[in-house]
Amino acid sequence: MIIVTGAAGFIGSCLIARLNELNFNYIVAVDDFSFPEKNKNLEGKNIMERVERTELAAWLDTNYQEVEFCFHIGARTDTTEFNKAIFDELNVDYSKMLWNKCIDYQIPLVYASSAATYGLGELGYDDNEALIPQLKPLNPYGDSKNDFDIWALNQEKKPFFWAGLKFFNVYGPNEYHKSRMASVIWHAFRQINETGSLRLFKSHRPDYTDGQQMRDFIYVKDLVSVCVFLMEHRKNSGIYNLGTGIARSFNDLGKSTFVAMGKEVNINYIDTPADIRDKYQYFTEANMNKLKSIGYDKPFYTLEEGVKDYVQNYLIPANYW
């Protein structure tokens, strides 16, 4: 059996799709299944058992001998939520529980960290573990991910193989339920469909022109390929960046979306909201040398390739993966 937490969510459901394509069908899907809108993501997938998030610890105590691997993707990811107690419960304490169960029962573990741990990038975007305690995230979500990374690195006992993945700006199918937290591409597609135009934030810094703020956008199909690689690799434990290593501008993203939709480019610029302006990231780019150094050599989708696949094969026909 392979455990996937956050199974009904965006990345978790895409990971299950890839595992099914590779003929891994004994999937234990873990989530809070009380949100029916997310359950569409699991339709048509081969799943052996569904386990409520709150029942996983007890389930593992009974079924651990059957578990081959654990992907801990589930988390509270809302960067606009400022109740620290929610993140402590769902992102930190829950992850500690699962970490310790994986030690007790000799289960290899891959868990989702986040590029939100890097804050404004004052120390760059290098996954050097010595720098992790010095990072300054911008919100409680980023704090929670960094807190767990620090805790994991400080543990004397660790799973025999483990990896924490700092996801950068992920986009792709099955994110429709994330609303405000969905990718810019998802929002761009909806705006263009409804209005024929796209609104992007103006630059409020003299060294960037409007729409030239840059992010490392990674297609979810690349992300799950890395997860499968680590499941098969099972050595070189540690914390890894997971982006493409190439920053692209929001203008590039917008143009790619118009092209994929077969529409004329029409981009307008609006002020960045004042309440987020001083915490707005103008540049992120993952240093990917560490992952490549352990043997991951598959090329990543370019932004244009990823947007085209996402728009034409999933958004336009309203398909799930």
Automatic annotation (TrEMBL):
Lineage, opening ranks: Bacteria, Pseudomonadati, Bacteroidota, Cytophagia, Cytophagales
Note on how the cofactor is bound: Binds 1 NADP(+) per subunit.
Cofactor(s) for this UniProt protein: NADP(+)
Role of this protein: Catalyzes the interconversion between ADP-D-glycero-beta-D-manno-heptose and ADP-L-glycero-beta-D-manno-heptose via an epimerization at carbon 6 of the heptose.
Residues of the NAD-dependent epimerase/dehydratase domain: 2-243
Family listed: Belongs to the NAD(P)-dependent epimerase/dehydratase family. HldD subfamily.
UniProt pathway annotation: Nucleotide-sugar biosynthesis; ADP-L-glycero-beta-D-manno-heptose biosynthesis; ADP-L-glycero-beta-D-manno-heptose from D-glycero-beta-D-manno-heptose 7-phosphate: step 4/4
CDD domains documented for this protein: ADP_GME_SDR_e (cd05248)
Catalytic activity, as annotated: ADP-D-glycero-beta-D-manno-heptose = ADP-L-glycero-beta-D-manno-heptose
Gene Ontology terms, MF aspect: ADP-glyceromanno-heptose 6-epimerase activity
Record: active site: 141 (proton acceptor), 178 (proton acceptor)
Keywords attached to this entry: Carbohydrate metabolism, Isomerase, NADP
Gene label: rfaD
Entry comment, domain topic: Contains a large N-terminal NADP-binding domain, and a smaller C-terminal substrate-binding domain.
Pfam families noted in UniProt: Epimerase
Binding site for substrate: 169, 180, 187, 201-204, 215, 280
Domain of life: Bacteria
UniProt entry tagged with the keyword NADP: yes
UniProt keyword Nucleotide-binding, yes or no: no
Binding site for NADP(+): 10-11, 31-32, 38, 53, 73-77, 145, 170, 178
Name of the protein in its database record: ADP-L-glycero-D-manno-heptose-6-epimerase
